[in-house]
Amino acid sequence: MFLWDKPFGRKTFRMSEEQARQSKTLAINQGLYNGFLAAGLLWGLFAGDAVKIFFLSCVIIAGIFGAFTVSMRIFYIQAVPAILALVLLLVA
User: Fold this and answer.
1) Would you say residue 36 lies in a domain?
2) Terminal alpha carbon distance of the chain
3) Are 73 and 79 contacting, i.e. CB atoms less than 8 angstroms apart?
4) For residue 86, is it within any domain?
5) Which of 42, 43, 49, 64 has the most crowded Cβ, counting Cβ within 10 A?
6) Does some domain include residue 81?
7) What is the mean pLDDT of the chain?
């Protein structure tokens, strides 16, 4: 969100300066959504398993959607850690 158009952000997401500039508003929007997901997972630490399951499921679905629409890399970066966390939560 904050580094989208900086060298680190462009390298991470494999974008040119122009691509980063054109998509910056979208990235800010996406970053805000991700912040809400993170806040939900933090809330889950206090609210119980149902909240954790809900927000982990949201992260997994977003990762799967990103894999199909943007890059399979998103699945490994976003969905796989959430899947592992969900599995560990369910077996605990």
Assistant:
1) yes
2) 34
3) no
4) yes
5) 64
6) yes
7) 93
pLDDT at residue 82 tops 80? yes
- The Cα–Cα gap between 4 and 20 comes to 6
pLDDT at residue 65 is higher than 90 = yes
Cβ neighbours of residue 89 closer than 8 Å, sequence gap 6 or more = 49, 52, 53, 56
1 in a structural domain: no
- Single-letter amino acid code for the residue at 79: A
Range of the domain at 73: 7-91
**CA 78, CA 12: separation in Å to the nearest integer?**
14
Q: Does the structure show a pLDDT above 90 at 76?
A: yes
Surface-to-core class of residue 13, CB atoms within 10 Å of its CB (0-12 exposed, 13-18 middle, 19+ buried): middle
Give the span between the Cα atoms of 70 and 26, in whole angstroms. Answer: 14
Query: Based on the structure, what is the number of domains in the chain?
Result: 1
What's the rounded mean pLDDT across residues 28-54? 93
- How confident is the model at residue 52, as a pLDDT? 97
